[in-house]
Fold each of these.
Amino acid sequence: MTEQATAGAVRTLTLSKSINEGLRRALTDDDKVVVMGEDIGELGGVFRVTDGLKAEFGPQRVIDTPLAEAGIIGTAVGLAYRGYRPVCEIQFDGFIYPGFDQIVAQVAKLHARTNGDVRMPITIRVPFGGGIGSVEHHSESPEAYFAHTAGLRVVTCSNPQDAYSMLREAIASDDPVLFFEPKRRYWTKGEVDLEHVPDQSMERARVLTSGTDITLVAYGPLVPTALDAAAAASEDGISVEVIDLRSLQPVDFDAVAASVRVTGRLIVTHEAQRFGGMGAEISATITERCFEFLESAPERVTGFDTPYPPAAFEDHFLPDMDRILDAVDRSMGRRNSLSEWRFDG
Amino acid sequence: MLLTHSGEYVQLLTPRGERVDAPGFDPWVADIGSAELRSLYEDMLISRRLDTEATALQRQGEIGLWPPLLGQEAAQVGSAHALRQSDFVFGSYRENAVAYCRGVDLTTMISVWRGNANAGWNPYDISMAAPAIIIGAQTLHAVGYAMGCDFDASDDISIAYFGDGATSQGDVNEAMVFAASYAAPVIFFCQNNQYAISEPVGVQATKPIADRAPGFGIPSIRVDGNDVLAVFAATAIAADRARSGNGPTFIEAVTYRMGPHTTSDDPTRYRSDDELAEWRAKDPLDRVERYLTRIGALDDTETARISEHSDTVARELRAAIRALRPPEPLSFFDNVFAEPNRHLARQRSQHEAYLASFDGGELS
């Protein structure tokens, strides 16, 4: 924290307002930053994250685009060639797929395929996750597709301060960054130091509660849920160390491994479907690195391998505190929902 | 908004080498005298020589693959010369005559086809982007770049080269929407070479491709793509429109891919000898040679000089290939990211240890 980080710079903001302030600061500090997306200008975005920015910076800095995601990402590539630093908004998680080719075949690869001659400092903001009772394609968690793609950095924030500082770091990065915003936490309030200087800490995981029995890894919207579960477990005498992963590519395996070497147990939770997800990668890597420290098999508490269901079902689909606590019991070798379970299929 | 009428195309030089009037287009080639036309001819001839040399080098196993541009020399050389060096080119993998005109280093160009590199030249050295292999993707990049030129209040422009097959891609259509909405200073240069690998253009379009652009609010010009003067004029008009703040223009250069899609392709499976003969009669070089000879601008001395020049360039290409050395095995880990990446550094280190585990220290 710098000397300038005085009380005057610390404000209580919602997570969405923190992102708005992060964009404002980036637009102010660097005239090569342009913000582009659907409905982000006059309307201020469907979540009002870009509220007021077009009026302040004008239509060439805050660009309402045609309704075409490949077009948004593809023109951002051209702007990056020209020396710009585009920040693209994808309106909802499930709308990113029309832009997928431009992201994985162009944005992700251009630095490598030009031997570093061309940089792609593009930030792609994506509101993601469920829990808001919305219609289909509005509640998805597509982060693993991008974490799997070489050449992309993938991050997600869980609180207003991280939303502000990680976004500024993402925009300042010379690499493309997928910036996943937990949309059901947009209205969460917290203190934000607006003078926080981007410091390349974005890819570091953060230990939120220290514990000795179980390492519980969460990111984005499920971090508060994980903290609730840890508090409930502690009442039961189980000490849970909650880690907010923050960066999904690269993953701070050093931090997770250090924790598991103490606790001997690992639970990973995310909203995304389980198969081939972040939980699989983290469980596999930690098993490779910490095999001899493990007291039990890593557990995953995730969405199911179904399409994201209609809103009436989402409380079943989304991991919650009780499902995490059930995994805590399993991890600890205590009686749990699967103790008597048999499957003959 | 259609600058040419549907189905027609602009021609200034007939296949027999006759200069014909094309009102509205003639003024744009007024500065191309016999010396300038001879220079365009020289670039076309050298492009063809490079192309046939590369094809031969593939047959000899020196490179793995080559996408010939045989037959498209006028479309590429004519358009390339109507641009400024500060304009930015976004092309596909077949725009190697454009790259030659922009002064590409042959070693970097050919390294891609030898399998040593993914994209070859430094785009900023010749203001020409890394070639796009995903069909049509580069058109959006060209539009974004042009938007940046506009934001910078620069009179630089960009040009997107793509083929008839690309016009079916969503990216190309989105590119035209964005270009029209922002009046981006960009040229859409479609080389309709009649084939997308084996599929004739009729699979992509049942009407002239140039007719599509006006539906996006973009004026279009259809030219004889084998006529270097017509192509130059159309591109100069489009560039002037872009520089003057009048936004995008679409050019359909009607040409023919006389060779295979790539050296791995066999065009005899999908097109006839008669068709090829028909287009051979419309060869882009022959007509310029006939015209220049008739007006006395291509005598034996000049022909010998140009021939010697093309021999030299072909020798340089061959030497460039032979001088290429296998890249360092671990260098494919480099430049995945611009900034340090701990995960990848660890993986690279493990692979380095694996290579070091072999006798002699490296897997050979």
Amino acid sequence: MSDRHEHAHLPDTVLRVKALESLLVEKGLVDPAALDTLIETYEHKVGPRNGSRVVARAWSDPDFKQRLLRNASAAIAELGFTGRQGEDMVVLENSEKVHNMVVCTLCSCYPWPVLGLPPVWYKSAPYRARAVIDPRGVLKEFGVELPETTEIRVWDSTAEVRYLVLPMRPRDSEGMDEEALAELVTRDSMIGTGLPLSPSQVPSSK
Amino acid sequence: MNGAHDLGGMHRLGPINPESNEPVFHQEWERRCFALTLACGFLGEWNLDMSRRARERMHPAKYLQTSYYEHWLIGLQTLLVEKGLLTEEEIARRMSEIGKGETS
């Protein structure tokens, strides 16, 4: 028998989650194995590596890129990435003239099938508040400074439409294959708060 | 309807502080809360907009003082109770039992 008081120190939040799970399982409303599968899926299987592959494909295959910009959900599905919170995708292409950045001011809308679950900062009050009034200041906080001549467009996600930024292909990446290109694509570069790595920043790419 | 969740353009909320190499979940209860919310969504008693609305109905001060998955937890409990799937009383009782180590 374990100590009867082992949970006495638990915070209210932890107790509440445990209580809900215990009651819902007892009533047969949720299956504990299904909970484990959901956690495994979103913690380990779905993540920004998916998005990196989409971007790398777009950088190396002009026809795919056209399809991606025209109907993002269908083009992304070609790589097998479909599912919840990604049903209606829009891809935003960055250029020297325009830099796109994505936020969800109301909550946390984010393209799960290609980026996984959003990081804490994306869901935080400061980012949601400031992205729409001071995008340059926000970018500076992420270490990104763009020329004054680059227009910054901020896209506010909704429960229906989810955005993925297609960053510019780094210079000096000519001749790299899709797999190597994917290594250059960071999560933040697909949200628009970062830029892709240059080949020299990836030690194993040579 | 606006509310504390309608944060676009608000001033003085401080720095963003992105965490490098951030884990998908920071605590075990966040994992369980996430999965419970999705699994209960499959029950078909409510849709995504109703889930959001349940979080947005939180008191503004509490909304700004609690974390993201706490919003989920509060929203989930609100919907479970409103739909008659659980009662406030049985949740409180079970929390107390778990706290005393009487059940896991």
